[in-house]
Amino acid sequence: MSATNFLIGRGELLTAEVPPPKRIVEKAEVYGVTETRDRLSPQLAAVVEQMDRLPDGACPENLAVARVAINPSYLAKSFFPGQLLRHANLESVGSRAIRLTPRKWSKKSTPCETATAELFVAGSRSAFRALSVWISELSETVDLSAAVVDATRLERVAPFRPEERIRGDTIPDDGFYEVGIHLLPGQLANVIRTGFESLAQSLEVRLHSNPSFEVGSLWFLVVEASAARIRSLAEYSFVRIIRPLPRLRGLLPSLRHGSAVSVTCQLPRVGALSLEPRVAILDGGLPDEHQIAPWLRSYTRLDALAPDDEGCTAHGLAVTSAFLFGPITPAGPAQRPFAPVDHLRVLDRNSSHEDPLELYRTLGHVEEVLLSRQYEFINLSLGPALPVDDTDVHAWTSVIDEILSDGNTFLTVAAGNNGAQDRASGNARIQVPADCVNAVAVGAANSTTSLWRRADYSAMGPGRSPGVVKPDLLGFGGEGGEYFHVLSPGANPELSAQLGTSFSAPLVLRNAVGVRAVLGPSMSPLAIKALLVHSAETAGHPASEVGWGRVPESLDAIIVSPPGVARVVYQGELRPGKYLRAKVPMPATGIRGLVTLRATFCFASRIDPQDTVAYTKAGLQVTLRPNVESVREGAQNAKTKAFFEETPYATEHTLRADHGKWETVLHGEKRMRGSSLHEPAFDVHYNARDGGGPSHSGEKIPYALVISLEAPQHVDLYAEILAAYPQLLVPIRPLVPVPVRV
Predict the structure, then answer these.
(1) Residue 168 — pLDDT band, cuts 50, 70, 90?
(2) Of 50, 102, 138, 220, which has the most beta carbons under 10 Å away?
(3) In whole angstroms, how far apart are CA 432 and each of 270, 439, 568?
């Protein structure tokens, strides 16, 4: 009987830092100094005029905010206009993606509408006035300082008008609104907060600042006011966004309860496969009677004084059942849980009633659990009923992303059940917080068979950029004719037929926990994320519908390599600005026939929520060098080959030419002749940025890389690779028996 080819570990021992390549000469300037003066001078005069008309209460300490659009030729972080901002005593407090047609650009083609970045720039009104004078006095005879060069790279300067801060299709006459406010560092943050509170008080606008959330340089809170007073509040210079407060999704009027005929199942008579993984379900609580007690480690109500809601507890049990057992076959045996679970009630009767503040109250509960750092694996099948917005990041997304930026938690988030809504308007896109870059957004497949597709209700991509490939993964979620059966409340193991991303998300978490339970702590949450993406199957469906694909039903398909395939896991840290060379392991005698090289990079990143155009602070630039001996004359490194194609990111939401490198997941594959590979390697450059500009104090980031080689004619590929690296690579052997059925 042949040995099982499990994953190969310790790939990080094949990595080493290498010197950086030679720098490429920067491009020629698009605009001259005189052109810049003639374009920007009247624009800045209009900005100063608008600022002077603002009431003093809208400009705390005489501070105001304007918008500055960058010419699309200068979107790389090295072109950030930092010298100009310092010269003018201004500071960037955020950014967003916009589309415009530049007068000129560096391309040879005629300029057309394209995506670019718009900065929100803050400073005193006198500083803007001085900048206006300075720009008006520019001429070709001035010294070409760094500040002048930065000015030539601006496309336009404009006021940030109150009406541009209010978002939403309809503004209610009276209601609750979310407000996002830009903050400046240090004591000025308190000045901005106090100024906003004073203006709100003068307008008789009620503030609900408990809870409120401060992430990056944004302060999120809720206000209650009439539409007319909201328009007056929007005059406050540091308001970034005001929008009607959305409702929570995941509260279950759509939950399908059992029919008149009772459908039962057989629950396992054994405990969980492993007791090590710490798993939490954040949901609506559990009913008084249920059948999951043998696998329930603990049950906690985050608000102990709030009563349960029957619909919420039914949903909480259904989601927990989906994690523990997967879809249960009616009248059949349920699968054995991989690990016990803690259920934490973050929804209660108050959440399902007409108190709009529960959106923020629930986020406070979620934040509390994440900050406790007790769990490696968490599922969240709820959130705001709000499709993602390319322009602004929601409090739910930014709070969760920032906490997950250490890479130590695997969090699945339901993508949403709005996929059948109007696609052109964006209402079918994934819902907040499925746009998190450090979490795993999960959509729903309609079947467990090979003929699967995206379930009609499952929310679609793209996500924001970065994070444009969303949902990350799909799991079975059920559809008419093939429902997802879960346990119902009660004293007997009875089933109800369900469908929704609320159940596909915990099912994908079950797969992740299964990998951890079987292979042990040697697999980090990031490595498990990379492995699931690596093994996912698209079945030819577009990335906007299925992301990286559907997670395999079988655990074997994730952790076992068939003949002719070797799969290697790398785990480690990257240092900012450094170049890491990750060698691709090869048999000593090379590879026979054709080979498919597949690679998946995953890393966790700190975020700048105020900079939607530069949301992640870390990015990877990865190049493949297939043949170490193929070196151009005068070059210091072997030739490179394109590997991670732009296709998954090439949508109407694409922001920049280098957008792909700021994604936290990179996945690609190439088919080539085995003889063309000689000591192949990936060179990985970690770029760090802060607020859209270069960062010289970036942090180390954790990463995981999964590489697989598939060569049908080279049946012994796996064994020969291990033999070629006897002191370095080892199989990651299971700590417990691999279940036959998953």
Answers:
(1) confident
(2) 220
(3) 38, 12, 34
Q: How many residues does the chain have?
A: 742
Beta-carbon contacts of 644 under 8 Å, excluding residues fewer than 6 positions away, are 622, 660, 666, 667, 668
Task: Please check the confidence at residue 256 and state whether its pLDDT lies above 60.
Answer: no
DSSP string, 449-478: STT--B-TTS-B----SSS-S-SSEEEE--
Domain 33-164 and domain 264-557 have a common topology: no
The answer to whether residues 179 and 212 touch, using CB atoms and an 8 Å cutoff, is no
Fold (CATH) for 264-557:
Rossmann fold (3.40.50)
CATH 2.60.120.380 fits domain 5-19+561-731? yes
3-state secondary structure 250-271: CCCCCCCCCCCCCCECECCCCC
CA distance 17 to 20: 9
* Of residues 27, 37, 39, 31, the one with CA closest to residue 142: 37
DSSP conformation class of 650:
-
Instruction: Give the CATH class of 33-164.
Output: alpha beta
Provide the 10 A C-beta neighbour count for residue 231: 17
CA nearest to 86, candidates 40, 29, 148: 148
Model confidence band, residue 253 (pLDDT cutoffs 50, 70, 90): very low
Which residue ranges make up each domain of the chain? 5-19+561-731, 33-164, 167-236, 264-557
Q: pLDDT tens-digit profile of 700-732?
A: 999 999 999 999 999 999 999 999 999 999 999
Contact 342, 377 (CB under 8 A): no
| DSSP β-bridge partners for residue 2 | none
* Distance of alpha carbon 697 from alpha carbon 459, whole angstroms: 38
Question: Which strand (E) or helix (H) includes residue 568?
Answer: strand 565-574
689: phi then psi, degrees, rounded to nearest 5: -140, 160
Tokens in use for 79? Answer: 């072109």
Tokens encoding 574: 């990257």
More confident: 89 or 662: 89
In the prediction, which pLDDT does 107 show?
A: 86
Q: Which of 569, 668, 580 is nearest to 620 (CA)?
A: 580
Which phi and psi angles does 27 have, rounded to 5°? -75, 160
CA-nearest of 362, 369, 363 to 312 is 362
CA distance 246 to 384: 6
Q: How confident is the model at residue 505 (pLDDT cuts 50, 70, 90)?
A: very high
